[in-house]
From TrEMBL:
Transmembrane segments: none annotated. Pfam families: 2OG-FeII_Oxy_2. It comes from Actinomadura alba. This is Alpha-ketoglutarate-dependent dioxygenase AlkB. The keyword Oxidoreductase applies. One of its GO terms (molecular function) is dioxygenase activity. Keywords: Dioxygenase, Oxidoreductase. SUPFAM superfamilies: Clavaminate synthase-like (SSF51197). Residues 109-207 form the Fe2OG dioxygenase domain.
């Protein structure tokens, strides 16, 4: 697959690396004990990482049962279970940096990496919380690195309330924490305007999916 994502002129760094976290992470408290942390432009060399992941990851299409029908999942997927080698050393570095930054607050390390490839604005993820496993009943964190074409992440309280909109740019980090998976839902909506590829990398602790 060739990259349909146009390398930005400012980002011509061949070395891929996560930047500092620390005070560059901006926290927004949501209600009901949920929060999000945002660190724009966390990954430098994100263009290079994007191209490497497009080639290295065994992207696969999935079909899932939805009520009476079996439908195509509208994005390509890959999953790296605990202990499985990640597809790029920069993802190991990102995971290590997240483990250090969140060690005290999370009390455990991130263990798995889920990857999604959104081929264009027709690909999406519907409203959901990551509630398969412990996210259903316990506070946890899901850290997402977004690279490629910017997409909108929507967040809304379960049971109703205003929708928050967050634009995820190339190399950005967003972490959903506290009760976010069980008291809020998130989605990447379809968009007729989006024509480029986006990769999302989600790091989760053990037993959260
Ligand atoms: O694409 C994203 O950043 C979100 C993906 C997501 O919510 C999920 O895989 O659970
Ligand atoms: Fe999710």
């Amino acid at each position: 697959m060739t990259s349909a994502f146009q390398a930005s002129l400012l980002d011509c760094d061949d070395d891929v690396a996560p930047g500092l976290l620390g005070s560059s992470v901006r926290r927004t408290e949501l209600d009901r004990g949920a929060w999000i942390d945002v660190r724009p432009g966390w990954i430098s060399g994100a263009d290079t990482l994007f191209d490497r992941l497009i080639d290295a990851v065994p992207w696969r299409a999935e079909r899932r049962r939805m009520y009476e029908r079996v439908v195509d999942v509208p994005r390509l997927l890959a999953f790296y279970a605990e202990g499985e080698a990640l597809p790029d050393p920069a993802l190991d570095e990102a995971k290590r940096a997240l483990d250090v930054h969140y060690a005290e607050e999370l009390g455990e390390s991130f263990r798995t990496a889920g990857l999604c490839l959104y081929r264009d604005g027709r690909d999406s993820v519907a409203w959901h919380g990551d509630t398969i496993g412990r996210g259903r009943s316990e506070d946890t964190m899901v850290a997402i690195v977004s690279i490629g074409t910017p997409r909108t992440l929507l967040l809304r309280p379960r049971g109703g309330g205003p929708t928050l909109r967050h634009d995820l740019g190339h190399g950005d980090l967003i972490v959903m924490g506290g009760s976010c998976q069980r008291t809020w839902e998130h989605a990447i909506p379809k968009s007729a305007r989006v024509t480029g590829l986006r990769i999302s990398i989600q790091f989760r602790p053990r037993g959260v999916r």
